Amino acid sequence: MQIKRNVKIKKPLIHYITNPISINDCANAMLAIGAKPIMAEHPLEVSEITSASNALGVNLGNITDVRMKSMLISGKTAFKERIPQVIDLVGVGCSKLRFNYAKKFISQCHPDVIKGNLSEIRALCGIESNAKGIDAGECDKITEDNFDENIEIVKKLSLRTNSVIAATGAVDVITNGSKTYLIKNGCEMLSMVTGTGCMVTALIASYISSLDIFGATILAVSLMGICGELSHHVTGIGSFRTNLIDNLFTISDNTIINKIKCELK
Amino acid sequence: MQIKRNVKIKKPLIHYITNPISINDCANAMLAIGAKPIMAEHPLEVSEITSASNALGVNLGNITDVRMKSMLISGKTAFKERIPQVIDLVGVGCSKLRFNYAKKFISQCHPDVIKGNLSEIRALCGIESNAKGIDAGECDKITEDNFDENIEIVKKLSLRTNSVIAATGAVDVITNGSKTYLIKNGCEMLSMVTGTGCMVTALIASYISSLDIFGATILAVSLMGICGELSHHVTGIGSFRTNLIDNLFTISDNTIINKIKCELK
Amino acid sequence: MQIKRNVKIKKPLIHYITNPISINDCANAMLAIGAKPIMAEHPLEVSEITSASNALGVNLGNITDVRMKSMLISGKTAFKERIPQVIDLVGVGCSKLRFNYAKKFISQCHPDVIKGNLSEIRALCGIESNAKGIDAGECDKITEDNFDENIEIVKKLSLRTNSVIAATGAVDVITNGSKTYLIKNGCEMLSMVTGTGCMVTALIASYISSLDIFGATILAVSLMGICGELSHHVTGIGSFRTNLIDNLFTISDNTIINKIKCELK
């Protein structure tokens, strides 16, 4: 299997409309795996740019009126032209504005992948979440007790939206409604540096351009977890961030195969 | 005394409305000391988000119409709900727009802390400043000659606004109007990398969520200075920036106590 | 010759209106060579800030309505007050919006320097380009076959606009219409990390504040290439980015003189 090579050779153009907090890291994460990022967000050019791209990512972080408008234009273009797309639900539990927008986007644009932490996925489903800001709440960690309930929520969302769902957390849950995988890669530092969630979405957007949607999502989520594991032997989160990008750049297919902890539920 | 621990355990949610130049570094600085940053700026969600937060920071850097609107909404919410807040006067001497906005914000929102370099504090007070862009002017350094005059300006601003004032520079002056502390930590490199001033405000916002306002401001300003000292044995400002975040993450209470150079005026 | 010293001593204030993707790296690149960046973009303050600055840079990346408005205001102010200015044509081949805006800006503001990769320069001239997103197309590399044709395009643009043109690529072409220099510094990694093109423009803006326009442009483009060469012995693009800023900070005049590969065409 040639995992990273596909994207490295194709150099797909990925249109990612996202927030300024992690936009630089997201662009570098995409470049690290061989994709070509473009982050255009002007409503008068985004349709043209999505059309020319191999995949689309949209991200609710630090939402603005302009990006709300542009993401919807691009999402509709992507749906119409069968360009794969992913939405990142950043902060969907933090404000009514994001919650309503996310529901509208999903119903009008039919994203191929919906990604959020478990608090965000629960919030989107109208189920009580315990989010603290943009992070998953302590109570929303998947434990033995709530395991089956949470898997069920994620699966139902997938069946209802016909999207692959990636619910991230200490254990990541990825489902297409019929099959569900659990990914147990990652390390604590990934949640201690800003933007790693947005970067996962950048990787998903890059891989769905060139692989099947379900496999691409599993690969992207696992890859970030594995690169986190490879990066965390450092002094602090400043070095960790640099190492993470380095590891996305250098990691070999063999390392991915050896390190991946992905099991069918 | 448990200095950093308070925040690390509480994991306060900090709403910081700030500019894109240093927004990533500010988020990572807050994460480094254990706070949870959220940088939302949409006028339709900021009140909701400030309400859910433990403190608010606003920053005039790279000001936009949207952020001018949002910061005022959030500032009023914070004042009304007694959520501690800090304003960073970035570039207040550069344009009439920022000058007028800063005065309006302070009179309507009553921030607990007003932070700026000495040129900015002077400009806000309508006193001749020698700012060059967003940096303090050469002539606005505190010297033996102008020492008493400048301290007096800072104290008067504190008494008039009823805010703690942090006037940063080679020597930082922090006053609550009755007591004034001088902080002599820091290194030259802190002024040679972008965003360190904005990061100080991020630290102030984080600490005022959990400590008394005056003590929190002193701690935040000192901490950045000390971490600068610990970071400057490097090749250049690229590595310095990485080290600075690493040191914010790793520094122990003992190191803070040993290194702090804070004296009552 | 004292290459870097001029700027280091003058500490020119540089107004750069640019995109959020690389805005932090651009500010740090300018600080690294001794300039003072200010990135203000509010239409109501940019004229005031450009007036107080020693040079202006504008950048089409991630274009917004507000920046389109502000860049035009600042460009006109710079032209009227004879403040040197440079435009970066990021993505001019990606959308009609940027194409039309670039033509308008150039005709109304008369920038001293126009910078783009070869695909962008070709697109601006209405000649078929093979751009992929914001990167130069594979087919737009200068080869032996298309060499003379491409040089001719760049020279004609210079004569028509009366601007120095910097057409970047594996070989950079810089012309003032009568003299044309080829710069052969650089390394592949420079194109594998986001924002290096925007940083070149940041360096051009910094140097045109203090040197003659043509010489400043040659120096800025060469300097980025040389610092790329000095930085690429690293693990990946995360470290490369840090090293690049470090090398911009530390590089000596002697190293520049020894490493520069600049020849008159």
TrEMBL record, chains A, B, C:
Known cofactor(s): Mg(2+)
UniProt entry tagged with the keyword Transmembrane helix: yes
Signal peptide (UniProt feature, chain positions): none
Keyword Kinase set for record: yes
Function: Catalyzes the phosphorylation of the hydroxyl group of 4-methyl-5-beta-hydroxyethylthiazole (THZ).
Family according to the record: Belongs to the Thz kinase family.
Protein name: Hydroxyethylthiazole kinase
Lineage: Bacteria, Bacillati, Bacillota, Clostridia, Eubacteriales
